[in-house]
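G., the chain you wanted modeled:
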Amino acid sequence: MSSTPAEIVRSLLANTSSLSTLETLIAPNATYISLNYNNSSLQKIFPYAGSHPNEGPLAIYNTFATVNRIWSQEKFEILSLFGAGEDVAVFGRFTYRSRTLGKETTSPFSIWAKVVEGKIVFMQFMEDTLDMANTVKVEGKGKYKVFEGQEEFEV
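Predicted structure as tokens:
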């Protein structure tokens, strides 16, 4: 019996620490996008961030392994997961605690995946990166100016 695209993505999320399982769910040349396309500043904080074209299951496995080195997962909750054809969307929230500083946060997340012939060929994972970065930020504030004519402010 074949699985639906939504069931395949749900299985991936339940087995992120098992490379052998991921290899059965993800095409060898799948593309994975984590948090952004290519941001060298963010990659200094989160080395897995960015595009991983044609890197297959290993890109997703390495991302989740690195995330597990940085944070302990206190909670991971799928709020909605559905598919239309080859496209699958997942929305949820997770609570992570940084292993270095002990800071905890809850972030929303979203995933867009494409499943072709029973294999994930594309996956994009998004979260609140500023909030997550703050869990590993040691000290100091960032200076921002969002609107024309607005004074700079620190957060």
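The chain is about 30% helix and 40% strand.

Shout if anything looks off.
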